[in-house]
């Protein structure tokens, strides 16, 4: 009986020595619930900035620039990431600079909740006081509103 106990002790010690030489393994994670699906992050905002030369308030004429409310003529405000018209807006997705006076934008155009992806090309005059672009099928030309 004594030899059986001694054999059991030797076996346990041998197993312990073998376990000590094996690398420790990390405990396995137990999945409790499925992972939440998260939308991928938007591209770095610095990539989709409208150049400074295009930013500001623009309108069909000086009277529209000065009007408290839209008179129905084209007016818009361009900032770093979007274009706001009197009743609609464009959220800038990407900016491709064609030259110092011309950029092509990919935008999500929101017209009362109906969003469409569009391309817009903005072109500045040499003095940077006139802006040309297409809005729908119509070519538009607006002037830079004076700072107020």
The helix fraction, in percent, is 10-25%
Sketch the topology as an H/E string, one letter per element. Answer: HEHEEEEEEE
How is the biggest beta sheet arranged?
8 strands, antiparallel, barrel
Shape: globular
In which order are the strands of the major sheet placed?
Answer: 1-2-3-4-5-6-7-8
Give the termini separation. Answer: 104 Å
Give the helix tally.
Answer: 2
Poorly predicted runs of 5 or more residues: 1-20, 23-46
Please state roughly what percent of the residues sit in beta strands, choosing from under 5%, 5-15%, 15-25%, 25-35%, 35-45% or over 45%.
35-45%
Number of strands: 8
Protein structure class: alpha+beta
Rg estimate, integer Å: 33 Å
Mean pLDDT: 77
Would you kindly provide a written description of the structure presented here, covering whatever features stand out?
This protein is an alpha+beta fold. It is about 15% helix and about 40% strand. The protein has helices at about 1-20, 60-65; strands at about 55-60, 75-80, 80-85, 90-100, 100-110, 115-125, 130-135, 140-145. Strands 1-2-3-4-5-6-7-8 form an 8-stranded antiparallel barrel. The N and C termini lie far apart (about 105 Å).
Features:
single chain; 148 residues; alpha+beta; eight-stranded antiparallel β-barrel; 2 helices; 8 strands; disordered N terminus
Characterize this entry briefly.
The chain has 148 residues and is an alpha+beta fold. The protein contains two helices and eight strands; from the N terminus they run αβαβββββββ.
